[in-house]
Write a structure and sequence with these properties.
Elements: H1 2-12, E1 28-32, H2 41-45, H3 62-72, E2 77-80, H4 101-121, E3 125-131, E4 134-138, E5 143-144, H5 146-149, H6 152-156, E6 176-177, E7 180-181, E8 195-198, H7 204-220, E9 224-228, H8 237-250, H9 253-260, H10 276-302, E10 308-312, H11 328-332, E11 337-339, E12 352-355, E13 358-360, H12 367-374, E14 387-389, H13 395-407, E15 411-415, H14 418-423, H15 425-436, E16 445-446, E17 450-454, H16 463-482, E18 487-491, H17 497-501, E19 505-508, H18 516-527, E20 531-534, H19 568-573, H20 582-588, E21 607-615, E22 618-625, E23 628-634, E24 639-647, E25 650-658, E26 663-671, E27 679-681, E28 684-686, E29 689-697, E30 700-709, H21 717-723, E31 758-770, E32 776-782, E33 793-797, E34 808-809, E35 817-821, E36 825-843, E37 846-848
Parallel strand pairs: 1-2, 1-15, 2-3, 3-9, 9-10, 10-11, 14-15, 17-18, 17-19, 19-20
Antiparallel strand pairs: 4-5, 4-8, 6-7, 12-13, 16-21, 21-22, 22-30, 23-24, 25-29, 26-27, 26-30, 28-29, 31-36, 31-37, 32-35, 32-36, 33-34, 33-36
The protein binds zinc ion.
Zinc ion binds at residues 175, 200, 202-203, 234, 236, 238-239.
């Protein structure tokens, strides 16, 4: 019924609805900064300069070139950046010079014509820009956002979800931090003197406004919204109220006493260090609820399930989060496509230097991003699709990211620079191939029989607390990948008994948090015959982030088989101070030789396998080959791809892959992007699986298997898999040596000291190098002009042992925090300052600054 009403509304607005077929997931998403010739018309009508005369240089070839590039490689989803009126944060400058409802009514046909021109190319999904926080105004002039507020009823005519004018004025929609209205830290003042502040996601009026705006965009014909800058660190009355609601929903009064020793919810003041863990989770949930309102606004115009949401900064990696970001809470509120703005020159994540000439390789693939999102779909949030945000400048890098998205049932995000796009010959070839070969990339349910458990709540812990979890997770997933193990992730928020039961084996990579409910689920899984592998002490924290007396699983393993449990900080800093791969841990449980080899599915190092059932009688197996040469250069701030070399095609790749229970494979064909049609491939059915040999895997080979009912006769798959070895090589690291992170020894004298103090934002980790016999003092201070009253935590870990020293907090009155370091060697130092700026300086030590550690 809701959908019918939505259709009627749209028809009455004179716009034909276009319903997406969300059963066919989008695979390509073009994201680009380009200016339409009519973009300025609404600003001109309002007698002001366009607020974003931005990207003019980048769009020099203009609209025709952009349309040509789109037409040559038609995406499933199109998004162009944000010069179109209204911008969510710029409605007017003064009461005389503002975007009126009349201007928007005149402007709307130009928007719909533009969407039609995309539709004519075959693009049916397009999204509009919304900024989650920017709010420009000057209350005394009633300018900026007041031009919307003061003319509320005028806009209700075209934005029905605005509803009754709220009593609270825009001045009260702004985030409060440290008792002050929070300025968007770098957005400044517009040409009319309106200061740009940050709106609060928990403010009802700010939320209503965004819901109404999304609804308006949907009525214009947009099929989705891209949300930029989502985040929140506010302490306004609305946030306090929501915080209290959050606490009451999560903790009974008995819980409060048991976990925190507190008798009254009112004692739990938002932002207090004691509630740091819950504060982070609350922030992410608050932003999620705000995103949910935007989604709802769009769906009210286009029908439920028919308006997609994509928010920048989706946290689909397993590293500590920035404030307000989250994968799980955003998905719970209906986010469809994850998005993480990354840099142009990197495959996956960027690299970080440790010492001059030495780096930890974190520039790998985006397998984790894709798998994290897939761990959310199918059961709880069927609409979620992974992405692969890439703006690659190098052709092979581009191809690799594209093939990766296809292989891992994800979305490839392309664009940002039209000139780079148009110069890339891989683009048209791959987009064109995909358009005509959708059958080979269909979505489906993974048939992996091994899963890695992901405790998402660990990411809300303090950086130093979560260090071991991050390291152990990374160790485990690399071990699985490097041994050709077909595996999924099971995410904590979604680990129902049904989901766990899909897997023969679940690996618990020493998460710190395990709730009582999760522990019961995992025990029931093991009792029912599931194989639960614990790599080290797991669950030493409750679901409230408080310490238990002992870990729930693997307590006896502490210090014996595990690497650096409870020695967190150093391993956090640059990826891990571990002594060996997961294999060591597994082999140590001698009574049950759980060598990883028995799970292996392929014999080719550097190749990752995925497999999914796409129909009752069909499954697709994907093999993606990461053996591509890239040379890396240090650009002074980070490492990036300087040039690319060969693709090392893997030949005679042997595959032994499980098939869905109660089926067997009867035939197969294989294809690679660029091939017109598939070639037949011989298959050997086995008990529980299938064996075949692929003649070659260049970047991607896809095998389509026909299935029939009934298990196959033949040798047991498990034995055959144990005999298959992928070799010892890990995934390639693109010409960089992967550094085993043993304690760092010299040459310390050569390390350049950075100029201090530095002003940095958010949270960063550093290396301080202490010479033998010297003492150093590291001092951190919150920058006073941004976050008065805001505190930061300074921590450090002893060299060699990685043992965390007692941390120091800056004072609420702005006094700095200092730590004295005496042990020689490289000490990991970190500052956690929430979203605030801080300075750090080191007296008596060389301070190494990572390029980016967000
Ligand atoms: Zn607030």
């Amino acid at each position: 019924m809701r959908r019918l009403i939505a259709i009627l509304l749209l028809l009455s607005a004179g716009i034909a609805p276009v319903f997406a077929d969300l059963d066919v997931p989008p695979r390509t998403f073009v994201f680009m900064y380009v200016h339409h010739p009519e973009d300025d018309d609404a600003w001109v009508a309002a007698q002001v300069d366009p607020p974003h005369p931005f990207n003019e240089a980048g769009a020099a070839e203009g609209w025709p070139g952009y349309m040509e590039a789109l037409g040559a490689a038609v995406p499933d989803i199109n998004y162009r950046a944000y010069d179109q009126a209204p911008l969510s944060h710029n409605w007017g400058w003064t009461q005389d010079q503002r975007i009126t409802a009349e201007i928007l009514n005149d402007y709307r046909p130009k928007v719909t014509a533009q969407l039609q021109s995309w539709r004519d190319l075959g693009i049916n999904e397009y999204c509009r820009y919304v900024c989650a926080v920017k709010l420009a105004l000057t209350p005394e002039n009633r300018s900026g956002m007041y031009t919307l507020y003061d003319n509320w009823d005028e806009f209700r005519g075209i934005m029905p979800l605005l509803g009754e004018k709220p009593a609270e004025e825009p001045w009260d929609w702004i985030q409060l931090r440290g008792g002050k209205k929070y300025l968007g830290s770098y957005w400044g003042v517009d040409a009319f003197g309106n200061q740009v502040y940050a709106g609060c996601v928990n403010d009802p009026a700010w939320r209503t406004y965004h819901r109404a705006l999304a609804n308006y965009c949907a009525m214009e014909g947009y099929t989705g919204i891209f949300v930029d800058n989502p985040g929140n660190s506010c302490t306004c009355p609305d946030c306090q109220r929501e915080w209290q609601r959050y606490l009451r929903e999560r903790y009974t009064p008995d819980d409060l006493r048991a976990y925190f020793g507190v008798n009254d919810y009112a004692e739990c003041v938002l932002e207090d260090a004691k509630w740091a863990f819950d504060t982070r989770r609350f922030r992410a949930e608050s932003v999620g609820a705000f995103l949910g309102a935007i989604k709802d606004g769009g769906e009210q115009a286009r029908g439920e399930g028919n308006f997609f949401l994509c928010a920048n900064g989706t946290w689909s990696v397993f590293k500590p989060t920035d404030v307000g970001l989250g994968l799980v809470p955003w998905a719970e509120n209906g986010q469809d496509i994850t998005f993480m703005e990354k840099r142009y020159h990197y495959v996956g994540n960027w690299q970080m230097p440790i010492l001059p000439g030495v780096s930890w390789n974190s520039m790998d693939e985006q397998v984790t991003d894709h798998k994290m999102v897939h761990a959310l779909d199918a059961v709880t949030w069927p609409g979620v699709r992974p992405d692969s945000i890439s703006r690659p400048h190098h052709q092979k890098q581009y191809e690799l990211a594209f093939c990766q998205a296809l292989a891992l049932d994800g979305v490839f995000i392309d664009g940002a620079d039209i000139n780079v796009m148009r110069r890339n010959p891989a683009r048209e070839r791959l987009f064109g191939w995909l358009r005509t070969h959708r059958d080979w990339t269909r979505t489906g349910e993974s048939i992996a029989d091994v899963a890695l458990f992901v405790q998402y709540d660990d990411l809300y812990l303090d950086y130093s607390q979560v260090a071991d979890s991050v390291r152990e997770f990374e160790t485990a997933r690399r071990a699985l990948q490097s041994r050709g193990v077909l595996h999924d992730y099971v995410i904590s928020a979604n680990c129902t008994p049904e989901r766990l039961a899909r897997y023969d084996t679940i690996i618990l990579p020493s998460p710190r948090i395990i709730t009582d409910e999760q522990a019961a689920l995992l025990r029931a899984y093991a009792d029912a015959g599931g194989r639960l592998i614990v790599t080290g002490p797991s669950g030493d924290m409750t679901g409230a982030g408080t310490l238990r007396e002992a870990p729930l699983f693997g307590a006896e393993m502490a210090g014996e088989f595990t690497q650096s449990y409870f020695k967190p900080a150093l391993s956090m800093m640059y990826g891990g101070k571990y002594k060996g791969p997961l294999y060591d841990v597994l082999a140590a449980t001698e009574s049950d030789p759980l060598a990883l080899e028995r799970f292996g599915c392929i014999n080719a190092p550097g190749v990752v396998i995925s497999a999914r059932r796409t129909a009752g009688d069909e499954m697709l197996v994907n093999l993606i080959n990461y053996n591509v040469d890239f040379t890396i250069e240090d650009d002074g701030r980070a490492y990036r791809i300087a040039s690319e070399g060969q693709v090392h095609t893997q030949r005679d790749v042997e595959v032994i892959c499980p098939v869905p229970d109660g089926t067997h494979a009867v035939s197969a064909e294989w294809i690679a992007p660029g091939d017109e049609s598939g070639q037949a491939l011989e298959v050997a059915p086995m008990d529980g699986g299938v064996r075949f040999t692929l003649p070659e895997v260049q970047m991607l080979s896809i095998v389509r298997l026909a299935l029939a009912n009934g298990a196959a006769e033949g040798p047991p798959m498990a034995e055959a898999r144990a005999a298959l070895t992928a070799g010892e090589s890990t995934l390639p690291v693109y010409a960089m040596e992967e550094v085993a992170l043993a304690p760092v020894e010299g040459p310390m004298a050569e390390a350049p000291a950075s100029a201090t103090p530095l002003v940095l934002r958010y949270s960063h980790h550093f290396g301080a190098i202490i010479e033998p016999g010297q003492t150093a003092t590291v001092t951190a201070k919150v920058v006073p002009w941004l976050g008065e009253g805001k505190q930061a935590l300074l921590w450090a870990a002893a060299p060699v042992t990685g043992r965390l020293l007692d941390p120091a907090a800056t004072g609420a009155d702005g006094t700095p925090a200092s730590l004295t370091l005496t042990d020689p060697g490289m000490t990991a130092v970190g500052v956690d300052a929430g979203g605030e700026c801080f300075t750090i300086e080191a007296d008596g030590a060389a301070l190494l600054i990572p390029a980016h550690n967000g």
